[in-house]
Amino acid sequence: MSENLGNTEFGNIQEKVKQRPLNRKKLLRRTIITASMAVIFGVLACITFLVLEPVFSNILHPEEEPDLVQIPMDTDEILPEDMIMEEDQIKESPVQIIEHTTDVDPISVYRDQYTDLNRVAGAVEKSIVKVTSVSQDTDWFDNFYESKNSTPGLYITNNNKELLILCRTDVIEKAEVINVTLNDKTVVEGYIKASDSNTGLSVVAVSMDGLAQSTTDNMIPASLANSRVSTILATPIIAVGRPYGSSESVGYGILTGKGSYINLTDQNYELLTTDIYGSSEATGVIVNLKGEILGIIDQSHNPTDMKNIISAIGISDIKRTIERMSNGKARAYLGINGTDVTEEINSSSGVPKGAFVTGIVMDSPAMNAGIQSGDVIIRIEDEQIEKYSDFTDYMENAIPDTIVSLSLMRQSGEEYREMELEVILEEMP
User: Fold this and answer.
1) Which residues, including other chains, have CB under 8 Å from residue 202's CB and lie 6 or more apart?
2) CB neighbours of 100 closer than 8 A, spacing ≥ 6?
3) Are 316 and 72 in contact (CB under 8 A)?
4) What is the pLDDT of residues 135-190, one digit of tens each?
5) Are 152 and 182 in contact (CB under 8 A)?
6) pTM for the structure as a whole
7) Three-point CA angle 228, 342, 86, nearest 5°
């Protein structure tokens, strides 16, 4: 009976399971949180990869550092043993010395001499490339145009990673793209490695990655002469590059002057003059009959009555500058103008030997340290300064933003007294 009751009272009962109502807000919240966490994780993973990838790459595949560029420096004057060799060196000159006889046609002698000179110029041109600056702009009518300007570049050397080329700064400093046309007509993009405001020169670097071996083998570094020796005066020279303002022009003449100096901040440069009448905008180099570079053409220091005479900065005075720029280093800045104390002034006036300060640049480290015109710098750190070139050599190797101890002699009444100063060298503006 109990079974029957169970069947009648509970037999028709059915159990139905209902799902919990969907909470859309909670689901949306969880979805956003999950997506946000995924994004954060992805960003962290990317940052970690970017930070650690170079580290692991350098460990697994260490990248070679560029070689340090070192340019041999010159002495101030020719050595006795070099003077003994001078006669032999002249005999080895490409220009032939032909004795005049009745059987020799003077026209053929003249032609042969210039043929030999042209051969020297052609050899130098293998060290000269074309550096082109490319800029883009719009005109008054909103039309897009592209402007180009080019200048000769002197191939100095390579550091196993880059080709290093010396050229004028004013042509490339505002360029959006710098193109370099190499000897085999290959056009590659370059970039400014370093510049020097004193000389107005820059070193442009071209990556060697991707360059054909034949292209790099075809690049011949320029041979740099000693422009300080007195024996180069009144000798034949060749102007190569753009002495007449147009590309691939050549001029022949004589070195007519040396010994005058361009007095610039923290540096003096010897100005070499020639009898070549060229363009007031001339660029390039002057070379001797061996094809060695004597100077970089610079017309900006010519007097007004000689603005078209080809002049050049002596290469010996800028070798350290070229070396520093080739290694990508900035120049330290003190801010003085100066000169040597000659033997005559030293003996007659009692002025100590050293770097004689003729002027101070306003708001420069020199002015801030209290250096005055008339002071004689005799020592920087442990370096003895006996002439102005000792000072300029030190500054070429100095590091900006460093404190140096400087010793100078200052006139007090009838005598000079030594003073010690500390100077904070800055970077050349």
Assistant:
1) 166, 167, 168, 169, 172, 173, 192, 193, 194, 195, 196, 325
2) 106, 109
3) no
4) 987 777 777 778 899 999 999 999 999 999 999 999 999 999 999 999 999 999 99
5) no
6) 0.79
7) 25
The two three-digit tokens of residue 419, written as one number: 């003073």
Angle at alpha carbon of residue 81, lines to 79 and 85, rounded to 5°: 115
Query: CB of 195 within 8 A of CB of 173?
Result: yes
* Tokens representing residue 96 in the block: 């032939």
Cα(306)–Cα(363) distance, integer angstroms: 34
**DSSP-assigned letter for residue 224:** B
CB distance 260 to 270 below 8 Å: yes
Greatest mean pLDDT among 22-31, 79-88, 108-117, 304-313 lies in: 304-313
β-bridge mates for residue 406, sequence order: 380, 421
State the alpha helices, DSSP H only, in 218-296.
none
Q: What is the CA radius of gyration of the chain?
A: 35
Q: Which of 158, 164, 184, 169 is nearest to 133 (CA)?
A: 169
Please report which helix (H) or strand (E) contains residue 369, including its range: helix 365-369
Alpha-carbon distance of 15 to 27, in angstroms, equals 29
Question: Which two three-digit tokens encode residue 187?
Answer: 């056009």
Q: What b/e readout covers 391-400, taking b as 16+ CB neighbours within 10 angstroms? A: bbbbbbebee
Number of other CB atoms surrounding residue 376 within 10 Å: 21
